[in-house]
Amino acid sequence: MSPSRIAVREAELTDPWVALEPGADAAERLRALRRAHETFTAVGTVPGPVRPVVADSWRRSARAGVGPDGSASVELADGDLGAYRAEHPLAPVMPLFRELMGTFAADGEHLLAVCDAHGRLLWVEGHRATRRKADRMNFVPGASWAESAVGTNAPGTAVAVGRPVQVFAAEHFIRQVQPWTCAAAPVHDPRSGRVLGAVDITGGDGLAHPHSLGFVQAVARAAEAQLALLGPRADAAGAAELTVLGRDEARLLLDGGSIRLSRRHSEIMVLLARRPEGVTGDELLCALYEDESVTPVTLRAELARLRRVLGPGLLASRPYRLSRPVVSDVAVVERRLRAGAVAAAVAAYGGPLLPASQAPAVVRLRERLADGLRGALIARRDPDLLADWAHAPWGEDDLEVWRALAAVRPAAAVRSRLAALEAELSAPAGPHPR
């Protein structure tokens, strides 16, 4: 055997992301994995021959409170699922996934699945009988297969670790899933590099081969290449993008350029973007100014300055309105919340809306958006999402979120922070300054 072939063979034998090296006894490995799984669920230690990637995933699953006898839950159904899928950035490459993987899945009695960046299944297609079997464990569109929900599995673990991974039989954390084998690879946004989701092939033990992992990785790379060629979503063509979350001065992307708006102009753009039909001058006055003595002349002067900043044709009057679509990050968060896509809404939330603004309408919108999002987080009880909020600048003193986090993840650090917040809340107020 040539040195190059020996090197390839050694890489195959030591690749930690492949479930079974060529020539391995699948039946013996399965028995050993079952024993290891029982040991871990009983005493918390991970014996051999569990791969490090699987051992780490088991530990994350246990910390998230996943039980070995749990099951997946459906989070989105019917119209909500359809609306969320239609706007998802992986929707344009679904025809490519079907072209490259559809026949392989159907002929091999496998399933093609695509999830979002939080492990929620968006599409599950393939062999009809296999789909019926998968339905019994809720491996269906709209179900959450994140590690924090169902433990170790290829799509959920792929988005958790950000790289292709194969999960064989009893490597799955939940016993109900252990008859299955799957391989998944994350798909990244070619412009920002962020994980958009993962493409997965799920079926029987025959998928426990290096080729299946290489296959899904190649499909993911092909999808990224097509996304790069497609450019911005067609439904966003011609629309300006307004970013106002987590910043005091808005950024407006317009015709390929970026405009940084003043604080007052940012407030005006937020209000106009929400009212495409337009608003009157009196409505804008009430929405923007606490001081009732501010005159319409002041507002008209501010709008004239904004029109010069934006350039001709975008800001119309009588009533005041934007003459082309403006998509704001606020609208994205609201749309995802309405669809029940809490994790996706959190991902789009960059912080409080124009946090320094005191404009009455902006303050109301800021509070309503934050309250709606944190309420959904508390109701969802996902420890990872709660922890992300609690450790963000806007959530570090959020007592209700810390209480919810402590209920689902009672780690020492969480309990300590909660105790400190409760002590601050119950401490008597100091003397009033003279």
Automatic annotation (TrEMBL):
Domain called OmpR/PhoB-type: residue spans: 256-322
Transmembrane segments: none
UniProtKB keywords: DNA-binding, Transcription, Transcription regulation
UniProt superkingdom: Bacteria
SMART domains, A to Z: Trans_reg_C
Name of the protein this chain belongs to: Transcriptional regulator
GO biological process: phosphorelay signal transduction system; regulation of DNA-templated transcription
Organism, scientific name: Streptomyces naganishii JCM 4654
Single GO molecular function: DNA binding
A Pfam entry, by short name: GAF
The keyword DNA-binding is annotated on this UniProt entry: yes
